[in-house]
Amino acid sequence: MQIGHIPLPNRLFAAPMAGVTDRPFRQLCKRLGAGYAVSEMVTSRKDLWNSLKTSRRANHEGEVAPIAVQIAGTDAQMMGEAAAWNIDRGAQIIDINMGCPAKKVCNKWAGSALMQDEPLALEIIEAVVAVCAPRNVPVTLKMRTGWCDAERNAVRIARAAEGAGIAMVTVHGRTREQGYKGFAEYDTVSAVKAALRIPVVANGDIDSPEKARDVLASTGADAIMIGRAAQGRPWIFREIAHFTDTGAHLAAPEVAQAKSWLLEHLHDHYGLYGWDDDGAGVRSARKHIGWAVRALPGGEAFRARMNLLESCETQVRAVTDWFDALADTHRLLPRAADSRIDEQEAGTEEESAFA
Ligand SMILES: Cc1cc2nc3c(=O)[nH]c(=O)nc-3n(C[C@H](O)[C@H](O)[C@H](O)COP(=O)(O)O)c2cc1C
After folding, report:
1. Which of 11, 78, 186, 325 is the most exposed, fewest CB within 10 Å of its CB?
2. What pTM was computed for the model?
3. Quick check: is 148 catalytic?
4. pLDDT tens per residue across span 234-274
């Protein structure tokens, strides 16, 4: 599996998720089996590049290559400039966001809304490729199946994108109108795969090794991308790798192992967002801890208690004690009940991450 000239160790990708797939989380996914992870989107609005949020998103210190940055916007020239700015900060691959119901940028809707305006979508693709190609940086595209049920234009856009020099296309099997409702469909992903020579990545609702195997087989996709199912369960990548390689399930991680992965993640997280009491580090870590425990016995009650803690030290202590108590009764992490992030929550989180 390659993106342009860049080889990847496998075909299991972590999806970009604003407010989730920051550098510490991407590192964790890569350590636990993801062959590739895309950053949260960086806006093409220059006036926001100096904001704390964007500077954190553009920070790739110590990140395992390849460093892939997603950009979002509605103006071709600005998108080209955003690509150059991110390459100067370490991006080795640029991904264009045409998949998210992103908020308005410069009075126009960005993200998947671009699928409604094919000439503009192509103009943006061409402008970004024109900036990236001389720098030897591949450009990829992430999109949905179309704007709405009646307008599933993914194949048309993907073909035009390939013609314009895009190196890989990812398709989330839902329309823009669907948000996160219903189920992802993979027929459109198969159609895109059949129409292109460049790699195509299938995305949407892949939450188990069996589902990963089935989606790879039914779409013929070159890779799969996983978003919500990796929240609180970043080891899903190695579970899938093991299953697709051997046909057998990997045992659940030991409780002590899951604890140490979470604690390492928290330390990296505070390193990026700060260790201050009641600061961004302790607040934004709550959701990661919540995802990690929510489906475990007593997890919901712990989550409620943990959300009241206001310092990184007390958070670390509480997580340590809680997992140690779980380890007294379970050696392996108990199989979680269905912990899927529901559609309402996914949409709300995604929207608020753009705010
Ligand atoms: C909280 C959240 C934030 C997201 N942010 C982005 C984003 O910044 N860029 C993007 O292309 N997709 C974004 N997505 C969409 C995911 O990349 C992915 O396409 C979608 O969640 C479907 O995959 P899944 O079913 O494996 O989660 C986001 C999704 C969620 C839940």
Report:
1. 325
2. 0.94
3. no
4. 999 999 999 999 999 999 999 999 999 999 999 999 999 99
